[in-house]
Amino acid sequence: MPLDKSFIGRTYPPTAPYQVGREKIREFAKAIGATDPLYLDPEAARAAGYTDVIAPPTFPVIISMAASRQIVDDPALGVDYSRVVHGDQRFAYQRPVVAGDELVCVNSVEEILSRGGHDFLTTRTDVSTSAGEPVVSVWSKLVVRGEG
Amino acid sequence: MDAGKAEREELPTQTYRVTRADLVRYAGASGDFNVIHWSERLATKVGLPNVIAHGMLTMALAGRAVTTWAGAPDAVVDFSVRFSRPVPVPDDDEGTEVEFRGVAKGETEDGLTQIDITATCHGEKVLSQARAIVRRQRA
């Protein structure tokens, strides 16, 4: 059954705060082979004007992907996650994520399309500090493959 | 990248190797434990040629290329891709290679440059509509 288009525009309650750890950033940078001192060395990051190490550009997906399960796992929407393929991904940054940030996500359903037996669900996650400073907006387009 | 250059500028190609060990490391770091990124048995069962790299790992490597081209890890303002083809990763020491080419398309008045990214694995495009907007660095 195609996804219910009345979910377009629906916004979910803010998620519990995510505490960005310095070691998590280092672990992520290492996993993608990124060696810039601003990801690894607090002194280098401070010299560049940040309070602590900064995260590589795709780091926010750790937070947004977990947060957007609010939508994907919403039984009323009924996405079959075993049929989901990642279609598109976009980040629009206000600033880099910095170790020590406490981040809150607000998820919304931006678009639902049905084409060729497949559903296309675009989620938007607005990531801001718990004090309300916008940090990054994240869009994911998920393809829910039709059966057969 | 040379600041203020108005024309198209081809950026130096960046090539990154991806092995099974990298997939395990990325799974742990990102929290994405989807079985298609580590179990050949389950990946082939759903019709994939082999274990495939996380799309977000490919995007992360594209991000490495972009920050290398931009000359700063904090220059990226906007970054988007479409995952057009999986990156299969064989279970050997060599793994596979993903190659990133970039073309910078001039600079706007507010100091922003668009970079169009081409990502290929064995000559096939694995990303489409991949682009980044980067901010000019303070001299």
UniProtKB/TrEMBL annotation, chain A:
Q: Which domain of life is it from?
A: Bacteria
Q: A Gene Ontology molecular-function term?
A: (3R)-hydroxyacyl-[acyl-carrier-protein] dehydratase activity
Instruction: Please provide an example of a Pfam family that matches this protein in its UniProt record.
Output: FAS1_DH_region
Which Gene Ontology BP terms does the record give?
Answer: fatty acid biosynthetic process
Residues in FAS1-like dehydratase domain copies: 6-137
Task: Give the family per the record.
Answer: Belongs to the UPF0336 family.
- Family annotation (HAMAP family): UPF0336 (MF_00799)
From the Swiss-Prot or TrEMBL record, give the protein name. Answer: UPF0336 protein Pflav_077500
Q: Which organism is it from?
A: Phytohabitans flavus
UniProtKB/TrEMBL annotation, chain B:
Q: Which residues form a coiled coil?
A: none
Q: Name one Pfam family in it.
A: MaoC_dehydratas
Q: Which Gene3D superfamilies match?
A: Hotdog Thioesterase (3.10.129.10)
**Alphabetized InterPro entries for the sequence:** HotDog_dom_sf, MaoC-like_dom
SUPFAM superfamilies in the record: Thioesterase/thiol ester dehydrase-isomerase
Please list the residue ranges annotated as the MaoC-like domain: 11-107
Q: Which CDD domains does the UniProt record give?
A: SAV4209_like (cd03453)
- Origin superkingdom: Bacteria
Q: Which family does it belong to?
A: Belongs to the enoyl-CoA hydratase/isomerase family.
Q: What is this protein called?
A: MaoC family dehydratase
Lineage here is:
Bacteria, Bacillati, Actinomycetota, Actinomycetes, Micromonosporales
